[in-house]
């Protein structure tokens, strides 16, 4: 029989907590990276009842809370609504989140989140047992950076989805956190290498300098490792990419010319970093960030 020593038997620290805001600080997405999926599932169920929460999504081992920015009153009830998010506020370049919970939910609202990567500081009450507890954490305010990439491979070797993930994973840092990767199915045009897919990467960046640095680094890595002379790379900074939906629909249901793609990108605030033929699919990938289960399906429209 093994005798174990648990340093913190009643704490499971989250791997990381990050917050992406829209430019007007009206909405935020709290992205939590837990170590215990069971605990995250319990939190997701209860937190979804919080008045500020508009939508909750799970992508891989991350939970993403789409919220209004503001403060609400939580009427917590054991078993039915035992924990929630009480407030999300923005102060200059930082975001403050206040969690509340009863019993074990209070432990999650305090210690488990306070010690996560990405947390600058925290203020927590005693938790556990029959207590009602609150925890406030302060994290950097981030904005979303979406990067579409296509045509890094040839018919002989390579795979864009693997290269893009490996680059993003290698460049992941506190200033530009790598948040998601989606493979996007495109219309199977005659010039495809095999499956006709592109890739979109999502980062959460603390400021414009961080955005520009990560874009320069990704471009440099693509030029180093791509085996194709047709690589396309585009970037869009915004809370969503709804303005690119119509283009993506066209590209997923038929052939689109490079000239049209370049014009569409310029007219909709998309930066072109590499202008090979792959720019067609790279642009079409942008609306599918954080939608990896939907983006792999070939259909004629977006939900």
Automatic annotation (TrEMBL):
<dbReference type="Pfam" id="PF22641">
    <property type="entry name" value="TiaS_TCKD"/>
</dbReference>
<feature type="domain" description="TiaS-like TCKD">
    <location>
        <begin position="146"/>
        <end position="205"/>
    </location>
</feature>
<dbReference type="InterPro" id="IPR053870">
    <property type="entry name" value="TiaS-like_TCKD"/>
</dbReference>
<protein>
    <submittedName>
        <fullName>Methanogenesis marker protein 11</fullName>
    </submittedName>
</protein>
<dbReference type="InterPro" id="IPR017674">
    <property type="entry name" value="Methan_mark_11"/>
</dbReference>
